[in-house]
């Protein structure tokens, strides 16, 4: 049994999610941050002393076992390429990726353990299963996925809305309609609305702190590192063995 902590490289470390990861990673004794990357490559107050590289110089990264990425689609190819060259795994929560980027991610999964999830909260993992079941029970009803996020969010519909939409489609064979709202500092809210004649069923999740996503990603990293190559699923991994 390997007792040394998993060496983690954080990509997108200056962002809202990156900073939460740097702040929360020290809660865990099974992981250790060895370096991070941002566009500027300047030190970050959340992790004093942690080496921070510029994303233009990722090959200067020290040895690491797995990267955690919360960046933007335009930055994703850089971290994927580094993981491929180093022969290490990747956990990513970056949304808005293209089909070509998912293909490249799938190709990495042939050699490494990787995991991408649009949402690292346990609540959404549970909601996804409930939505599929509900949509299957009322296949003729209208289905709408409504998502609300902070004004800085760039992609729409959100990755989570698309994930819940796929659950609707898996349940009833047809995609739902999507609506997106950008307002203030909303962390992330998702409503799946199934509407029939004279009644409406609402299934919703509201995130009030990014810490849930950061803790979920750290847990996913620790679990994925114990697995072999393949594209692993956050919901399946977490719900098979729920945390206390
Ligand atoms: N799966 C999940 O559970 C969650 C997913 N997300 C997703 O995670 C991603 C990040 O979200 P958030 O932290 O709010 O975003 P931010 O905009 O706050 O952070 C983005 C990070 O990516 C870096 N970056 C952006 N563009 C480039 C580039 N061209 N080259 C190199 N680095 C770049 C930024 O660096 P710089 O500071 O230099 O701009 C920053 O470090 C988004 O896709 C979001 O949708 C968010 C929350 C939860
Ligand atoms: O950008 C965000 O903030 C979030 N993005 C993810 C998404 O696109 O679904 C997850 C969460 O809702 C926050």
UniProtKB/TrEMBL annotation:
| InterPro entries for this protein | DapB_C (IPR022663), DapB_N (IPR000846), DapB_N_CS (IPR022664), DHDPR_bac (IPR023940), NAD(P)-bd_dom_sf (IPR036291)
Domain Dihydrodipicolinate reductase N-terminal, chain residue ranges per copy: 7-120
Q: Which family does it belong to?
A: Belongs to the DapB family.
Q: Where is the active site?
A: 149, 153
- Which organism does this record belong to? Arenimonas malthae CC-JY-1
| Alphabetical GO biological process terms | diaminopimelate biosynthetic process; lysine biosynthetic process via diaminopimelate
Q: What protein am I looking at?
A: 4-hydroxy-tetrahydrodipicolinate reductase
Q: Which residues bind NAD(+)?
A: 12-17, 93-95, 117-120
List the pathway annotation.
Answer: Amino-acid biosynthesis; L-lysine biosynthesis via DAP pathway; (S)-tetrahydrodipicolinate from L-aspartate: step 4/4
Q: Does the keyword Cytoplasm apply?
A: yes
Provide the function of this protein: Catalyzes the conversion of 4-hydroxy-tetrahydrodipicolinate (HTPA) to tetrahydrodipicolinate.
- What is catalyzed by this enzyme? (S)-2,3,4,5-tetrahydrodipicolinate + NADP(+) + H2O = (2S,4S)-4-hydroxy-2,3,4,5-tetrahydrodipicolinate + NADPH + H(+); (S)-2,3,4,5-tetrahydrodipicolinate + NAD(+) + H2O = (2S,4S)-4-hydroxy-2,3,4,5-tetrahydrodipicolinate + NADH + H(+)
Q: Name one GO cellular component term.
A: cytosol
**SUPFAM superfamilies given for it?**
Glyceraldehyde-3-phosphate dehydrogenase-like, C-terminal domain (SSF55347), NAD(P)-binding Rossmann-fold domains (SSF51735)
- Residue stretches making up the Dihydrodipicolinate reductase C-terminal domain: 123-230
PROSITE patterns in UniProt: DAPB
Where does this protein chiefly localize? Answer: cytoplasm
| Oligomeric and partner information | Homotetramer.
List, alphabetically, the PANTHER family matched.
4-HYDROXY-TETRAHYDRODIPICOLINATE REDUCTASE 1, CHLOROPLASTIC-RELATED, DIHYDRODIPICOLINATE REDUCTASE
Q: Where in the cell is it found?
A: Cytoplasm
Which top-level enzyme class is recorded in the Swiss-Prot or TrEMBL entry?
oxidoreductase
């Amino acid at each position: 049994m390997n007792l040394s902590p998993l060496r983690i490289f954080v990509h997108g470390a200056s962002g809202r999610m990156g900073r939460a990861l740097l702040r929360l990673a020290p809660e865990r004794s099974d992981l250790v941050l060895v370096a991070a990357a941002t566009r500027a490559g300047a030190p970050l107050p959340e992790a004093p002393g942690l080496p921070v590289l510029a994303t233009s110089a990722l090959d200067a990264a020290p040895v690491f076992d797995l990267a955690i990425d919360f960046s933007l689609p335009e930055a994703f190819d850089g971290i994927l390429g580094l993981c491929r060259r180093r022969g290490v795994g990747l956990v990513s929560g970056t949304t808005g990726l293209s089909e070509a980027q998912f293909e490249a991610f799938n190709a990495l999964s042939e050699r490494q353990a990787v995991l991408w999830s649009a949402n690292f909260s346990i609540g959404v993992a549970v909601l996804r299963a409930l939505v599929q079941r509900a949509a299957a029970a009322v296949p003729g009803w209208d289905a709408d996925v409504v998502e609300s996020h902070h004004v800085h969010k760039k992609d729409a519909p959100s990755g989570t809305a698309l994930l819940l939409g796929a659950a609707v489609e898996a349940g009833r064979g047809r995609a739902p309609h999507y609506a997106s709202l950008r307002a203030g500092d909303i962390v992330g809210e998702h409503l799946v609305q199934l509407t029939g004649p004279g009644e409406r069923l609402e299934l919703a999740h509201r995130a009030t702190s990014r810490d849930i996503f950061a803790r979920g990603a750290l847990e996913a990293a620790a679990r994925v590192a114990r697995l072999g190559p393949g594209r692993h699923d956050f919901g399946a991994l977490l719900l098979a063995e729920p945390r206390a």
